[in-house]
Amino acid sequence: MRPDHETAEKSFTGRSAAKGLPIPRGTSFRLRVLALLCTCLPIGPVLAQAESPEEKGLRIALESNARSEGFGDFTAGLTMVLRDRHGRESVRQMRFKVLEVAGDGDKSLFVFDQPRDVQGTALLTHAHINTMDDQWLYLPALKRVKRISAAKRAGSFMGSEFSFEDMSSAEVEEYRHKYLRDEPCGELSCTVTEQFPLDEKSSYSRKIVWQDTVELRPWKMALYDRGGSHLKTLAFADYRQYLGRYWRAGKQTMVNHLTGATTTLHWTDFEFGTNLDERELTQTALRRVR
Prior knowledge:
Layout: E1 14-15, E2 22-23, H1 29-40, H2 45-50, H3 53-67, E3 73-83, E4 89-99, E5 107-114, E6 122-126, E7 134-139, E8 144-147, E9 175-185, E10 188-197, E11 204-212, E12 218-225, E13 230-242, E14 246-256, E15 262-272, H4 283-286
Antiparallel strand pairs: 1-2, 3-4, 3-15, 4-5, 5-6, 6-7, 7-8, 9-10, 10-11, 11-12, 12-13, 13-14, 14-15
């Protein structure tokens, strides 16, 4: 969830993921990086040759970032299908809302509607730039809002193969980026990049991401645990374009290579520009979720 080309001048206080340089508030990270590249490197075809893998990786991340945000808010429905290594399934129905926040990360809300034993359970996330995200889980049976601590972010989200960390939007500046290569991926050509979380409390040591070279949509993501082992793989499918500009995957499948279990999210009913009220995405509102 990122700003589009026309709104990419979103500013923040942070550090360059590639250089570790301080970025003053009110200065566009994207424009600062592009200016740096323009002043330090030759223009034209020589630019691509002169870029370091880190500079190219950051540039790709920024371009992808610029294409997939600027929507303001949207809502969607989703079905979560959990399968254990023996193929046994359980199905859950959910709703999703997300609101962009200028100068910070997105606010999002997942609400479970079915089955009855999890009905009303809700996960609220306030993503942040360069600081740990805030997450709260509402458990209706206990009538209690539980804060998700840093130590719990690696834990399973409602028994799925997605962790609480996976359910939060990732910001470009929260990672160090590195371009690896271009290679075929099905009928498309993909650029492959590596992302290293700057947060020492992240449950991942690195991520490898495959994005098509035309639209920069992610198609696969390999997730490595803190010990460097390939823990999970997230695959994206069934992309559709909304409002002539926003690509969203209709299917996301997370495979846990340690347990053999999978979780698939089927997304439906995307609706953009719903005039979502920010008051719906607060801790107080969690207790009133219907």
